[in-house]
Amino acid sequence: MTDQNPSATPQPAAPLSAAEDKQWAMLAHFLNIILLIPALVIYLVFKDRGALVRQESKEALNWTINVTGLLIALQIVSAIFGLIPVLGWIMVFLIVLLTWALIVVNIVFAIIGGVRVNGGGTYRYPLNIRWIK
To answer: Are the C-beta atoms of 54 and 46 separated by less than 8 Å?
Structure first.
């Protein structure tokens, strides 16, 4: 039989230690390489358990929302241009180059962010539209 006590309420999760706070904040940046899902999960799970992880995962999530949106937009534009012979194919080639450049920039910024947070600092992505305040 299970305990059917209606007055029992779930307890909030324990706050993170300083080392755990730094670790999850660092992982929020490093896992941006995979794009949207890891930063979102870290933000939703740990935002109320540590100040550093809240700040850094929010920054990482804002960046990855922008990058993911740009990648989706580039793929849509590429598909449209792909229907146009010759000139469209040239545009598709340029869009593919731009896509690869965006992926490389994302990887570089994710590594820089993770290293800075691991070193005890914080990181703000350049040209980041902050969707989550």
So the answer is: yes
Number of domains in the chain: 1
Structure tokens at 3: 């305990």
pLDDT level of residue 49 (50, 70, 90 thresholds): confident
Domain that holds residue 37: 18-116
Q: How many CB atoms lie within 10 A of CB 95?
A: 19
CA distances from 50 to 14, 15, 109 (A): 10, 6, 23
pTM value? Answer: 0.81
Q: Is 17 exposed, middle or buried (0-12, 13-18, 19+ CB in 10 A)?
A: exposed
